[in-house]
Fold these 2 entries.
Entry 1:
Amino acid sequence: MNELVCLEVSIALWFVHVFTQGAFAGSALGMRYLVGARDTIVQPKGALFSRASRALANYVENLGPFVAADLGLILTGHHGGAGATAWVVARIVYLPLYMAGVPVARTICWLISLAGLATMLFRLAS
């Protein structure tokens, strides 16, 4: 995938993360809480909403640097090699592994995404 396609897929994947979290929000927090002012803190029920929330937070933390590097590559006309593609593919695989509670493979996906990001930054700097 080229850098522009990777950017588009990364945004689509953000929606997937948000909708995954939302799919478990009603049963975890209750509809009254979700449509209310949320003045009190409610402890979520079940593991899936919490996993989806942590996966979304992790994605958002990693999306910023990816977008910055990807836009830098696009604007300068550099090619990120396989870095952007590696980041996107690893992040696609990461979510179902996180939701299934698979510990080691999930971490490996995260490390692959970091390696992809490092590759992008190396290409941008050269």
Entry 2:
Amino acid sequence: MSDDIKAKQNDVKLYATQAQQADKNEEYPKSVRMWENAIKTLNQLIRIDPNKYNVDAYKKKVEEYTEIMEKVKKKKVAEPEGGKKDSEDDKLQKQLSGTLITETPNVKWEDVAGLEKAKEALKEAVVLPIKFPQLFQEKRKPWKGILLYGPPGTGKSFLAKAAATETGGKFFSVSAANIVSKWMGESEKLIKGLFDLARQNKPAVIFLDEIDSVLSARSDSENDATRRLKTEFLIQMQGVGNDDDGILVLGATNIPWGLDPAVRRRFQKKIYISLPDVKARRLMFTLNLGDTENDITDKEFDILAEMTEGYSGSDIATLTQDAIYGPLRKCQRAKFFKNIDSQHIVPCSPSDQGAFRMTMSEIEKPESLVPPKVTFEDYIQSIQKIKATVNQKDLEKQEEFTREFGQEG
């Protein structure tokens, strides 16, 4: 029998003992977590133990522990002194459950244009440990924290949602409003409650967008409450005394140099999400257009991709939205329309066969109006108005940070 199998068998015994002790102490959430850990380890043993008799025993244990765990879940926390039915931690977790977005987003890797290196890094960090836990033994441990950084609008949040979709776990999207409180000591408790809630819903991804707004570099001038919040986050992310397997913390920021050095260290992988290259920009145009009827050729898409050097993904989405409005503007300006069938009309030029004079406001049946298709000219007009939002100085700072601390995405 391999040392790995023996170690896991010992882990199962330890988890079961801790679960039983926690149940006896009326620490029911902890008891459930320990039973879950025991069941998870048994399932790993089922996959790796070649002895079929052992496997049958593991399966029986899984059924037994699952039944016990379900009974523990139905137990109520003992009523503390003063007649309060819920502990303080339970109340905080209820508050977090009501304010956080806990969902599994429906975003796939193919929905993210470009960023191939970043996607590969996230697959390695997120998908492999969940789907193939047997690969992560001994010194090979899953990543605990990943920082996505780069110019605004490059798809950092979108990548995080794709990673969450692939895990099939809970997705906690956290903002400063969820974890910062004006009451003394409340922010630290919310941070702790967040991580406790994630541990109870493993596998889970905790996504902190605009992380610099909460965890900026510490200074002598900041107040004690802010300092304590940062300290609690660092403690929770370190995972001291807690089982954090199955929990990934994803952070996103536009200004990584503003993060506290200790926070930066907790994010073991730091991935630069750069502006899209020409191939990615071309794909973004087609993705953003979707099924909208258009007359744009492949060659014209290539030209648009070349013309939008320096545009972010968000800029291209805005540009496309403006171009899609082009046909509506034509309808508003039109002085002549024509019938395309017995029930529908489109704007046209005065020289078109069957053209008749009319304005948009004079159309008796609004549902009869059909807008023209989006054209290359609509995009050209939009490009004159919609400019890139990322300047060269910002890009230079991002690239300098990458050379010093990060990796290319």
